[in-house]
TrEMBL record:
The lineage of its organism: Bacteria, Bacillati, Bacillota, Bacilli, Bacillales. It is a multi-pass membrane protein. It comes from Aneurinibacillus thermoaerophilus. This is DUF4870 domain-containing protein. Pfam families: MamF_MmsF (PF09685). The keyword Amino-acid biosynthesis does not apply. The chain crosses the membrane at residues 7-27, 47-80. Its main location: membrane. The keyword Transmembrane helix applies.
Length: 102
């Protein structure tokens, strides 16, 4: 399996199937780099869902509005950055979760 298109699909899955696509690539690929990127993307998506859920609960005390905006921008920015880096064949690591995937 070619690494470049696989990484583009994995990073782009944020916008159409954030859990299913990384899981498919993780279990169906035998390339270690693709497996690493799939697990990073999956963990990043799960982390963003948790952060957005907690932020939505904090809307009651008004700080949630700011947090929702910040986490929404983060959830959009990093997958797009990952797509661009994959197209340029540069290494990319999601913040925070990269250390969890070693």
């Amino acid at each position: 399996m070619n690494v470049k298109p696989a990484c583009v699909i994995i990073h782009g899955s944020t916008f159409f199937a954030p859990v299913l696509i990384p899981l498919l690539f993780y279990f169906l690929s035998d390339h270690p780099y693709i497996k690493e990127k799939a697990m990073e993307a999956l963990l990043f998506h799960v982390l963003m869902v948790i952060a957005l859920f907690i932020s939505s609960l904090l809307v009651i005390v008004l700080i949630g509005f700011v947090l929702l905006l910040i986490f929404s921008l983060i959830g959009i920015y990093y997958p797009i950055k990952g797509i661009v880096y994959a197209l340029q064949e540069r290494p990319f690591h999601y913040p925070i979760v990269h250390g969890w995937v070693k």
